[in-house]
Amino acid sequence: MRSSFPIVTTNLALSDLVQVFGDEKLATALLNGLGHHTHILTTKGQSLRTRGRTTT
Fold first, then answer.
1. Vertex 38, ends 15 and 49: CA angle to 5°?
2. How does pLDDT run across 4-22, given as a tens digit for each residue?
3. Element (H or E) spanning 32, and its range?
4. What does DSSP assign to residue 34?
5. Can you tell me the distance from the alpha carbon of 3 to that of 48, in angstroms, rounded to the nearest whole number?
6. Per-domain residue ranges for the chain?
7. Which pTM was predicted?
């Protein structure tokens, strides 16, 4: 049994990660490996990092 688990965050849709890896088969294999026993949380709305900042 694993004693630690990775946390992966991205601002891209899963379908857009193919462009990051440059190869559809590689991206699919990596996502399938990461996706085993995973919980995917999708949030919408204003970023907490930029909330309250003024635009110039």
1. 65
2. 778 888 888 888 888 888 9
3. helix 24-35
4. H
5. 30
6. 1-36
7. 0.53
